[in-house]
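LOG
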Amino acid sequence: MTKKTPLRERMIQDMELAGLTPRTQQTYIYAVRKLAAHYRRAFESGGPS
């Protein structure tokens, strides 16, 4: 299982509040993980929020 960072938790909460389905949430999380892997760093250690 993937560690749930505070940033990931916030993203999940925001998606739930937006009314996104669980499958859409999974797809978005997958896309963010792939993007982070592409840049070989966690988003929490980069740029402005």
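LOG (cont.) second protein
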Amino acid sequence: MATYYVATTGNNGNAGTISSPRRDIASGQTLLSSADTLLIRGGTYHEAVVAISGSVPNGADDANHTVIAGYPGETVTIDGATADQPLTVHSCAYVTIDNLTIVGGQDGGAGTAEGALGVGQRLGLGVHHLLLSNLIVHHTGGIFIAADVGDNHHLTLRGLTVYHTGYPWPGGFTPHGHSIYVEHCDDSIIEDCEVYDTDSHGIHVFSQSGLGTNRLTVRRCKLHDNGSFGLLFSSGSNNVAYNNLVYGNGIASWAGGGAGGMRTYDGAIDCAFYNNSVYNNLGIGIWVQNGDGIFVKNNIGYLNSSNFVNAGSNSVIDPNLWGDPAFTNGPGADFTLQSSSAARNAGVDLSGIFPGDYLQQVRSTPWDIGAYRYGVVVPPASTARSQVFIF
């Protein structure tokens, strides 16, 4: 398990050591064997990163990934301004990609093209046991995870910041793209991410050619100020979203009534929304548009156009709070609870599914409703939309 290095001051004829690094990421990748690490020193790299079978060897197992990462404490920018896609991953397993900033690219938003970061890409070239962590993706297309013949499974997206994706940029492509688009990707996790300022949905879980996504967990994410919905489960079964902060979505002028906080439709089965705080979305806060056996428990919905609409079959609803939860500072995106909150001690115990809150603080019984348990204090990392819409 060796470690190799790339730097903007390097040379592709070098050995790839920290004192004698390669120049290009693609050149550094040729040094890798299974479970090796390639560390990229700080700077901007005008090339696409392609992690596919043949260019990046598979890792050995969950504990021994092959790693491509920015050097700790340094900013590494992949500027794909001249590439169709700045980062491509397919036909690989047990690989980690960490600590990179991804900008540029010629493709459109993930809803209509391959996006800035493509995984699987409907090429029959599935990916499994992939970790994408601590990536910043902005001013480009979205993240496109898809498979048709191949099978994507056991993917983890952790600590991603994705913003201003799916918007027009020079080159003339004007998509209504999503920040994170997922289809046919089973047994996967999206956690501790912030997704905002996209042209369409923040996270869109979809079905293509009858291939839905099953057993996907979305947890502890901050989804705000997106054009349409913050999160949409539009197919698949046993997908669950809990401890998320979903606010200020529905801002795109084209979205019309198709906007809001969280939504199921298109045949979603046995999916669940638990302990989410859904606030001030221009549209429906939580919308069970259709689907069968949808669980909606321990959620807060407040100051949305409509806080909750249920049009599904066999939905399991309550307890929830569709009213003023006495947030500490809703307009300032501090969704912790004041002592007077009606959400305190009003929830059902879901510790058999997950034990903690947005900050992974263990909840005690009786449970509080919403993403935070009462008593935690957290400075918000970003603010809610400055104008509060009251309907």
